[in-house]
TrEMBL record:
Belongs to the membrane fusion protein (MFP) (TC 8.A.1) family. It holds the Pfam family YknX_C. This is Efflux RND transporter periplasmic adaptor subunit. PANTHER family: MULTIDRUG RESISTANCE PROTEIN MDTA (PTHR30469). GO terms for molecular function: efflux transmembrane transporter activity.
Length: 299
């Protein structure tokens, strides 16, 4: 009992000192807290449903669907009797070679004279092009790795330099089964595609398009920018209660903007756009505050 009475005053005397010491260290602890790095800012996108398509980019040239090259069949001087750009009927004479008429096998327009009047032409010389400018198509070349993906009636979305900011619909008409070479000697297969209707086009114009090979209209999808790979498998960072959680996903169709999600996510999930950053699964993150311009766009 005597020892207990002696210890109590000592312990009671230490308590105020401990409290004072703790109070003295609070500012230091607070300072250390503010020195700790804050969680990284992240941008997120929401998993939604919409169209995803697999397509094939092509570049083509506007051409007349019916076009014919006229050749000389006998030697002699040529005399043109039809002006360049003039309309001609099927079987109509367009020139004379050694006094014999040169006729066109198709109706259309004399597009280009390759030799001038008075020139001596041997047999087999290309003389002119006759084409029907009212019936236009787009001709393109594809290589052997892509030709087997194409079939008639596949839809196409066209863009043309003469119509900036606009796109037009079309379709595949024919796919050649015989290899050809372009003017540069490159080997490929010729395809014909429908030209956009209702707009002014001229033979020789360049068109760029995407043949839609496969499409899902109501696919579960995310931005392709949210995907990254680990050991060859697609991954995403799922935002869950302020933390970046690594989730493996299975993807399907993919285009320039979206990837179809077959498993691993559901509509409404928010995933992080890593932008090259790496996060530990479960790491704390914070959402980047929108700028005034971004906030104004949402109102």
């Amino acid at each position: 009992m005597l020892k207990l009475q002696r210890l109590l005053p000592l312990r009671m005397g230490l308590l105020p000192r401990v409290i004072v010491l703790l109070l003295a260290t609070l500012p230091l602890l607070a300072g250390l807290y503010y020195l700790l790095p804050s969680p990284p800012e992240v941008i997120t996108v929401t998993v939604d449903q919409g169209a995803v398509q697999k397509d094939l980019w092509i570049s083509g040239e506007v051409k007349a669907k019916r076009q014919n090259t006229l050749f000389s069949s006998l030697p002699g001087p040529i005399e043109w009797i039809v002006d360049e750009g003039q309309r001609v009927n099927e079987g109509e004479p367009v020139a004379r070679i050694a006094g014999q008429p040169l006729t066109t096998p198709i109706a259309g327009q004399l597009m280009e004279k390759k030799v001038p009047t008075g020139s001596w032409v041997p047999p087999g010389t290309p003389l002119a092009e006759v084409a029907d400018p009212t019936d236009l198509v787009i001709q393109a070349m594809v290589d052997e790795t892509d030709v087997l993906k194409l079939t008639p009636d596949q839809p196409v979305r066209w863009t043309l330099a003469g119509y900036p900011g606009q796109s037009f619909s079309g379709k595949v008409l024919t796919v050649s089964r015989v290899v050809s070479r372009d003017h540069e000697g490159n080997k490929g297969f010729r395809i014909l595609l429908s030209a956009p209707p209702g707009i002014t086009l001229y033979a020789g114009m360049t068109a760029e398009g995407r043949v839609i090979l496969e499409q899902r209209d109501e696919a579960l999808r995310i931005s392709v920018d949210a995907l990254w790979e680990q050991d060859g498998k697609p991954q995403v960072y799922l935002l869950r209660k302020g933390r970046a959680v690594t989730v493996s996903v299975e993807t399907g169709l993919r285009d320039d903007n979206y990837a179809q999600i077959l498993s691993g996510l559901q509509a409404g999930d928010r995933v992080i756009i890593p932008g090259g950053a790496k996060f530990t699964s479960g790491q704390s993150v914070r959402l980047k505050e929108p700028t005034k311009a971004e906030a104004g766009d949402k109102t």
